[in-house]
Fold this sequence. Notes:
By secondary structure, this protein is of the alpha/beta class.
Amino acid sequence: MKTVFKILLATDYSQSVQSAEYYAVRFSEFTNSELTMLHVYAPYLAGDITDHYNNMVFQDIIEVEHSRIQMHSLNLMRSIVKSANNFKMNTIEIEGKASEEIIKEADKMQADFIVMGTHGETGFINRTFGNHTWEVLYHSNVPVLVVPQSALFRKWKNIVFATDYREGELPVVKFLSQMAKMFDSDLTILHISNFALLKELEIILFDTFSKEVKQNISYSKIFFRMLRGNEISEGLNRFCMDHDIELLVMSPQKKTLFEKIFSPDHSITKRMSYQTKVTLMAIPDYYCHEK
């Protein structure tokens, strides 16, 4: 069977990214895709000693990191794949800054998706590895799947795309319609208004964008919804809970909304319940899947 996607899984081996690892394997299995696990380790700081000694230490680090990722990937496959012999996972270990190397490797291997985890007991992206998640999410050229700790991979029956009616969103919706066809999913284009515009203007913008999508994208299971509420993040929360959403898709250009959803400031997020349940996909505006 033809390989559908190339998927890059970024890990730091911590328990908090375990769900992302499981998710990536199941997603790869379901779509018959090629999976590569990547671990980026911190640069070795050479001491004020001989070059020969530094080279020996550096070589030891390379060997240790290589053995570590091999063992980790093998244990992962044995724990969740019925037959590890029938599922192959590539591994890459590299020195450097995590976010930069993840993006470089994704470009190099022409990845279709990057899968990463959140950190913290409630699913918030924290300030350690989580900072790298932020940077990858904002700067990646390909879709990034951010998997909360308690999220499990389920067939995407309900996909929601949060729209602001931007021109660059149309190619994203086209790509999502292709994914929806693969999963036989409902694709809901959702706009939540916070009363910043007059109701009449909101309706005009909503109708115009809906017509443009229908004219350019042929998929029978696209639905359009507009809701009004003072807090957009809470509106997304309620919609995801009420409609059993498996995948919430947003543009990384919506930085303020991302920060409200994943910020460690609990007073802003009000401990949004869907953080630990719904996988988030970030797709840049004008994204076009050319394969």
